[in-house]
Amino acid sequence: MTRVGVLVFPGSCDDRDALRAVELLGAEAVRIWHRDEDLGGADAVIVPGGFSFGDHLRCGALAALSPAMAAVRAHAEAGGPVLGVCNGFQVLTEAGLLPGILRPNASLRFRCHDAALVVERESAWLPGASAGDRLTIPIKHHDGGWYAPPEQVAEIERRGQVLLRYEQNPNGSVGSIACVANERGNVAGLMPHPEHAVDELLGSTHGRVLLQGLLDLAPAPVPA
Amino acid sequence: MRVTVTVRPREGILDPQGEALRRSLTGLGYDVTDVRAGKVFDLELEASDEADARRIADEISERVLSNPLIEDYQVGG
Prior knowledge:
The complex is a heterodimer of chains A (224) and B (77).
Chain A (H helix, E strand, L loop, with lengths): L2 E6 L6 H10 L3 E6 L10 E4 L19 H11 L4 E4 L1 H8 L6 E3 L7 E9 L14 E8 L3 E3 L2 H9 L3 E5 L10 E5 L5 E4 L16 H11 L7
Parallel strand pairs in A: 1-2, 1-3, 3-4, 4-11
Antiparallel strand pairs in A: 5-8, 6-7, 6-9, 9-10, 10-11
Chain B lengths: L1 E8 L6 H12 L11 E6 L5 H16 L5 E5 L2
Antiparallel strand pairs in B: 1-2, 1-3
């Protein structure tokens, strides 16, 4: 069974939903405390949402310096898959594992609603989805405006690192970019919350697509 | 030794906080055309001399206190 490690920082608040979502998809979920120096044998990693370290300095900046993130960096460098959601996306950009940075929403308002996301291209991260498909996944953030300098954005677009765009830009993200991957394609991040969209009761199951992508990218577990 | 670091949004980067402040100041009747909001850090640190303190503060500013994509920093003053 694929084992997914979910990081927990002081101030994380979506770790439980992430753990539950992983279990719903039939994988094993384990907690990784920010002071842990290893990933407990995890094949894939989720850096979940929340307000790690009170969002002090810059969102995600202090979490990016934690021992567990050093282990995540080593995992990513070895090709292991990592998904950052909301604050986790901010942490991964601050750690330099994903391009850009998340800035306060252009409106300076906290946005909390379903967001329509348009699939940019077929990707291992989005199993079964085709370019132009629409996914409904909720957002809830104040600092979700993705930014990178124009020349870096052009490079990211050219290399096909954009996976999802907002149908209606809720936060001032450059190019309406909602989900971006690293150059190698094993690390991805987004502000919307796939772990909150895994059950019809909650209005959408589209979050399962990205979470399945994370599981698919993990190395096949050794049979017991 | 005490070293002060100032971090500012880079030129040309939209600063929503500064813009909100500008609008509020305009509402109060002040003729303010631009506001850029930054941060000031006073570091108390162990260093052999002033040059060493600046070197350490530079390193901290680059690694942690600022994000070079959107911010510039200044050590001292």
